[in-house]
Amino acid sequence: MSITGTLIIQVIVFLILVGFTMKYVWPPIAAALDERASKIAEGLAAADRAKSELAAANAKVDEELAKSRNQIAGLLADAERRAQSIVDEAKHRATDEANKIIAAAKAEADQQTIHARESLRDQVAALAVKGAEQILRKEVNPGVHAELLNRLKTEL
Known about the structure:
Number of strands: 0
Radius of gyration: 60 Å
Largest sheet: none
Strand content: under 5%
Shape: rod-shaped
Number of helices: 2
Order of helices and strands: HH
Structural class: mainly alpha
Mean pLDDT: 88
């Protein structure tokens, strides 16, 4: 056979091979490529959605953190105010109690002073009566001279 005949047969075989490939081999490959392209597109879209959801979640987390910080700051301020009011109230109660104790001590001291004066008056009156007895060399009867002794006590 001549080169032309071989060339023609090779072209016919090549065309049959191209036709067979276009009819039976190419459609499954194209379908697989189209399916792969759609999966990649879906994956990219899902990645974009996930990225936007992540950004939204991060923004929400930041917002919640800011709210939490504000609430904690408010709670700390309330706690400090409560603690200060408790301290002030305790100081006020302690001052009131100290004033009561001081007043009671003053009253007791005044009472003891009055009692001591009365005791001293009685002792001075007794000493005066003894002194008068010794001067007069005679017994002074406290029952008889009660008015004189009372006047002496009040003068002292």
